[in-house]
Amino acid sequence: MAKEPSESGDGVVHDDAEQAAEVLVPAVSRTVRVLDHLVRHVDGATVTELAKSCGLAKSTASNLIRTMVSEGLIEYDSDTRRYNLGPLLVEYGVAAVTRTTPVAEARPFMERLAERTELACLAISPMPDGHFTAIAKIESRKDIKITIEIGSRFDRDAPLLSRLTDAWHDVVPAADDDARREEVRSRGFGVVFGEYAPELNVMGFPVFDRDGQPCLVISLLGMGTDLTPQDIDELAPYLVTAARAITVRSGGRVPADYPEAGPERSAG
To answer: Domain HTH iclR-type: where (predicted)?
Structure first.
């Protein structure tokens, strides 16, 4: 006798065979592949390029893209004949970011850092595939600003970001990275001078998840004398305090060997 479909607690009827097979909806997977391609290509893409990149027949890609345009997920530029991310995604993205607990808890600390230094302060998240994405920011108060747009992506080997996340991962570092890893762990934050671009200095600290792993990096960007070793020494106690507070308030776990914050020095 065939088994009747069951109703879950959310009121949705599920077929047990489908549940067991973990059936996925191909159209949703294709949509995600299209969006992922457009995220990686700021100049957008043609139907042909999207079909090739996403492994779709051109007719399938055309129908899918037409539907995505009608729903506001992507938009079409008739001058260039290229597609790009649509306005609806901005609304989705803002809603997602504001509902992310670590970011919500980090914002007051980001605002204080930006006010105190007049530098741009960003929240950057490690992504499942290993790269990093800027998901929130407080703009620089400087006349000449160094900034990064929300949604900007960074490679998995980006100097500051990779060092901060790797420092608390349970991995054995290469011999030449061991000293740098220990320095980051002992200070509780990381700094790079001129490695992203000449004169661009960046510092950042991690926020930890429930497993004690970095789930967010809060960073400051400064050009030359806007962010000096002396500035970093003065900010150090606050960075450690902020890392601990944001982690605890967002339900994370501070690693046992993460440093305690000392008394803050005057920022001058």
So the answer is: 25-87
Question: Which conformational region is residue 266 in: left (phi greater than 0), alpha (psi within -120 to 50 degrees), or beta?
Answer: beta
100: domain range?
Answer: 92-249
Examine the fold and report which residue of 86, 104, 131 is the final residue of a domain before the chain moves on: 86
- Which residue, among 125, 50, 112, 36, has the nearest Cα to 82 in the 3D structure? 50
Strand segments (E) across the chain: 6-7, 13-14, 74-77, 82-85, 120-126, 132-138, 153-154, 190-193, 200-208, 214-223
**This prediction's pTM:** 0.67
Q: Within a domain: residue 203?
A: yes
Residue 5: which residues within 8 A CB-CB, separation 6 or more?
13, 14, 15, 16
Q: Is residue 3 part of a domain?
A: no
